[in-house]
Amino acid sequence: MNRKIKSLLAALCAGAFLISCEEQGLRSGDEVSDSAADSVKTAVVNVSGKLFSIPSPVQTAKLIQDAGVPYNREILSDVSKMSEHRTKSAQAMNLGVYGTDMAYASLYEDGQSALKYFKGVDRLSSAVGVRGAINPDLVKRLGGNVGNPDSLLMLSGKFYREADNYLKENDRIDIAAYVLLGGWVEATYLTAAAAAVGTEVSRNRLAEQKMTVKTLREAVEQTADQAFLDGEIMTRIYALEELYGRVKTQYTFNEAKVDPEMKRTVINSTSVYEMDDELMDEIYGILKDLRKTIAAS
Amino acid sequence: MKNLKSLKTFTASLFIAGAFASVQTAAAQCDTTVTYAERYMSDQFVPDGQTYRALIYDDQIAEFYTTFYGGSVYRIIGFSGLEKEQLIFSLYDQEGNLLYTNEEFRNAPYWDFEFKSTVSGRIEARLDPMKQTSGCAVLLIGFER
Questions:
Q1: CA-CA distances (angstroms) from residue A218 to A118, A214, A273, B26, B51?
Q2: Which of A42, A143, A150, A228 could form a cystine bridge with A171, CB 3.0-4.6 A?
Q3: What angle do CA B129, B133, B139 make, to 5 degrees?
Q4: How far is CA A100 from CA A18, A140, A280, B17, in A?
């Protein structure tokens, strides 16, 4: 029996040694370290083939601006509370929130506010352990372009993709999901606020989140710990999903048109989403509560 | 008899160690694959802030659901291993109708999609069995600015 244990331990050490050699070759100075057990878990999760995709909050902020909705600095989150986020889940969710607000403020050329949110993004990315993995030049360029919407969109997209990639590579898919959750809630809240003042495009965009809220719930359910799943935020996510169940949808399939030379396909299918004023107000109400809970976490 | 038992234990242990190392190698390969895939995201497209990666074997399929907003143009990049055209990716609508597959275009590593209306879709990715039997599949999505 002892021999078995010894052999097993020797093999585990050998495996850990090989892992450490390869990981050093890949990256150094990472705050989120791998363990042999973590690596196995990564493989199992990946092999299951289940991935999650949430529309970019940065794109949502751009769509709000494109809809001609006036800028409202007052509805943005309170970045002065960033040091109060103590848990990894809270830090990750608010990293998503600040990234959305940074993009929104920058798009409306409020460079001063965008810079504040950039500082929040910078600080919380360190807190969740991804800051060291992101190309320092990218971070510098992001900070230097907060007042330049065109560049900021591109750079923040790259920043969040690098962070997401690093978290997935290091089996921190729970943290990656929390970042998505925070970003989505903030972007959807901004959309709802625009819809509430009568912007039809934003109202449609709000209704179109029906599928995303389900995907988001699944992503968090499969990655978060039990305490989070039993908490207030998930209760509100479930309530939100239930409300979205009342959004009526009608989909019509139409043939797509392909242009092989341009490597481009035009998708001609159409979807119609419908919700009445009462439902919209209820969704807005839950989003307000959800956002408040994330800010206070 | 004791020696045979020890040999079995040692072989099993080596297998476990090998499995750990191979998983880690695959994870490292994923990182390189992401770098290769990123080259197809031109400055015209803004990354959506996520990477979709999965270690797949043989005929396994990685899939995910997403929403594409109407009035937007998206670029989807599919890459596996260290060479292009090894990954087959397909886009289906919410009713399961095939909207596109790069299999019809020699496994093109990227394609652009213009959505007239918001569509919830499913993306499937699998390895081209003629080119690869296992590896890291990476998909990236960007939206046109």
A1: 29, 6, 22, 26, 17
A2: A42
A3: 85
A4: 40, 18, 22, 43
What is the per-residue DSSP string for B49-116? Answer: S--EEEEEETT--EEEEEEE-TTEEEEEEEEETTBSS-EEEEEEETT--EEEEGGGGTT-SEEEEEES
Mean pLDDT of A51-74: 91
CB contact under 8 A, B72 and A59: yes
| CA atoms within a 13 Å half-sphere pointing along the CA-CB vector of A49 | 15
User: B95 to chain A: which residues are within 8 Å by CB?
Assistant: 251, 253
Q: Which domain holds residue B61?
A: 3-144
Set of chain B residues whose Cβ sits within 8 Å of the Cβ of A266: 113-114, 116
Say whether residue A89 is in contact with chain B using an 8 A CB cutoff. no
The reply to whether residue A212 touches residue B67, judged by beta carbons under 8 angstroms, is yes
Give the one of B10, B20, B47 whose C-beta lies nearest to A157's C-beta.
Answer: B47
| Intra-chain end-to-end CA distance of chain B, in Å | 70
ipTM: 0.85
Q: How many CB atoms are located within 10 Å of the residue B44 CB?
A: 13
Contacts of B68 in chain A (CB under 8 A): 267
Distance of alpha carbon A249 from alpha carbon A245, whole angstroms: 10
**A chain contacts of residue B30, beta-carbon cutoff 8 Å:** 169
Q: Residue B39 belongs to a domain with what CATH number?
A: 2.60.120.380
A33 part of contact set with chain B, CB < 8 Å? no
Give tens-digit pLDDT for A124-170: 999 999 999 999 999 999 999 998 998 999 999 999 999 999 998 89
Burial class of residue A140 (count of CB atoms within 10 Å of its CB; 0-12, 13-18, 19+): exposed
Can you tell me which residue has the tokens 């080259």? B39
Q: Which pTM value belongs to this model?
A: 0.83
Structure tokens at B98: 């095939």
List CB contacts (< 8 A) between B139 and chain A.
51
Inform me whether the pLDDT recorded for B95 exceeds 90: yes
A135: contact with B, CB 8 A cutoff: no
Residue of B nearest to A265 (CA): B113
For B32, the closest chain A residue by CA position comes to A26
Alpha helices (H) along A145-276: 149-169, 173-196, 200-207, 210-223, 226-229, 232-244
Q: How many domains does one find in chain B?
A: 1
Q: Where are the alpha helices (H) located in A27-87, listed in sequence order?
A: 36-47, 57-66
